[in-house]
Design a protein that fits this description.
The complex is a heterodimer.
Chain A lengths: L7 H38 L2 H16 L2 H15 L5 H27 L2 H9 L4 H31 L11 H12 L2 H32 L2
Helix pairs in contact in A: 1-4, 1-7, 2-4, 3-4, 4-6, 5-6, 6-8, 7-8
Chain B lengths: L7 H6 L1 H34 L3 H16 L2 H9 L11 H27 L2 H9 L4 H16 L1 H14 L12 H12 L2 H30 L3
Chain lengths: ~220, ~220
């Protein structure tokens, strides 16, 4: 029963796939967070009417399956003749996808800062930018960070979908091994364990952070 | 820049087929949600019980469901279960995968909701002569559903979006699958999938609207 044709080389192959998964996650979370912070801050400041176009686009990004978005982005880049690699398409689309969720988290964080606190900061003579940097953001960060950690883990799991574009990330590399070795259960369990090892400690850390910060409220 | 002619009429002509696919999508999502809620209630109760076996099994289910990709869970149902001699069709594998995922996420939602219900509610119900099951079913559970209704709505939208993953295990009857079938026949990828995206968006919006109507009808005093 414990016989397996899996070799160390295959494990390294899986680890390389996990590396691609992490690389795409890192890029998507980095750019997604930057964009999402801008979008979220804009949504918290601007009137609902001024933010309506942005709200609609972000809503579409959250209401259409990511797989369909990736297929559409890939088809669009070949129609438009960008000549992007699947990796680039995946990173661009996942960044936009991340930004849609991040914007909501950032907006929620900013709106959780009481208006009187911000008005007090402005009455002390702070400019809008000073109020943002020194008062609002530090307070908003506490509210937003647990959600952001959850989002990061969600994006890490969602990168599995880029296999449809032909990128050999963790799940796709496990499929390649399954095709060759014909041991689906064993290899999938190793793959699941790798995902779990990446995700679980960070999720636990996020949960602990959330609990600790709630005490101080 | 665009050395390409869009053929939207081709996609629009396929709209009836895609709408039938959308029906399968909704069917799978609703079934996975109903089954997921049933499992999630059991998991949430098991996770709060003193029985270590029940606690361990529930915790494993919940943590695996929450810490691995949904696509991995569907692959596990489709390819992994074959090692036990269980060969699920793509439709069943998709349903099993999404149900597993829904149950894991909803169980945590329900656990949070159960903690928010004062224990005096159960005690009051018990002192009125209700049995423990009766008290849970008639007093605690309705409140639990009420508290966790917004996250349940989100999970329903998630379930709709997750059904598109059936594509990767070869399901050809749901919205994404029908679209892919049309795509490989015509290579009008962008047109067909853009139409599918519109349909998914409308379904998601319909779910949100429906949830709001249900909440308005159910949760008023």
């Amino acid at each position: 029963m414990f016989d397996t044709a899996l070799t160390l080389k295959d494990l390294i192959f899986l680890a390389k796939g996990a590396g691609i998964t992490l690389a795409i996650t890192a890029v998507a979370v980095l750019f997604g967070t930057l964009l999402g912070t801008i979008f979220g801050a804009f949504k918290a400041q601007a009137s609902a009417l001024a933010a309506a176009p942005l709200t609609f686009v972000l809503d579409v990004l959250r209401s259409v399956p990511l797989l369909i978005q990736l297929i559409l982005a890939n088809a669009f880049q070949s129609i438009a003749g960008f000549g992007w690699s699947p990796f680039t398409v995946a990173c661009v689309m996942l960044s936009l996808y991340t930004s849609a969720y991040c914007a909501e988290i950032v907006r929620g964080g900013i709106e959780a800062v009481p208006a009187v606190t911000r008005r007090a900061a402005r009455s002390l003579g702070m400019t809008w930018a000073q109020d943002m940097a020194n008062v609002t953001l530090p307070m908003a960060l506490r509210v937003a960070l647990p959600g952001w950690i959850g989002l990061t883990l969600g994006v890490m799991k969602d990168t599995a979908l880029v296999l449809w574009l032909g990128i050999i990330e963790l799940l796709r590399s496990s499929q390649i091994l399954v095709t060759r070795l014909q041991e689906p259960l064993f290899i999938l369990m190793i793959t699941g364990a790798i995902y779990f090892l990446i995700s679980f400690p960070i999720a636990r850390m996020g949960g602990r952070l959330e609990a600790r910060w709630r005490e101080n409220d | 820049m665009f050395n390409y002619t869009f053929h939207w009429h081709q996609a629009l002509r396929a709209l009836p087929d895609m709408l039938w696919g959308a029906l399968v999508t909704i069917e799978v999502a609703v079934l996975s949600m109903v089954l997921g809620i049933a499992f999630a209630v059991l998991l949430a109760v098991a996770r709060m019980s003193a029985n270590r076996l029940a606690y361990g099994a529930a915790t494993t289910w919940i943590e695996v469901a929450r810490n691995t990709p949904a696509l991995f869970q569907i692959y596990m149902a489709h390819f992994g279960l074959g090692s036990f001699g269980i060969h699920l069709s793509p439709w069943w594998a998709l349903l099993a995968g999404i149900t597993f995922n829904n149950a894991g996420y909803l169980a945590e939602t329900f656990r949070g909701a159960l903690r928010a219900i004062p224990p005096t509610q159960t005690r009051a119900a018990r002192s009125l002569g209700m049995g423990p099951l009766r008290a849970f079913w008639s007093v605690v559970m309705p409140q639990m559903f009420r508290i966790s209704f917004p996250p349940m709505t989100n999970q329903m939208v998630w379930a709709i979006l997750m059904t598109s993953l059936g594509l990767t295990v070869g399901l050809a009857t749901d919205l994404a699958g029908v679209t892919q079938e049309l795509n490989v026949r015509t290579f009008r990828t962008f047109e067909f999938f853009a139409l599918a995206a519109v349909l998914y968006y409308l379904i998601a919006k319909a779910v949100m609207l429906g949830a709001r109507l249900i909440a308005w009808r159910l949760f008023r005093y």
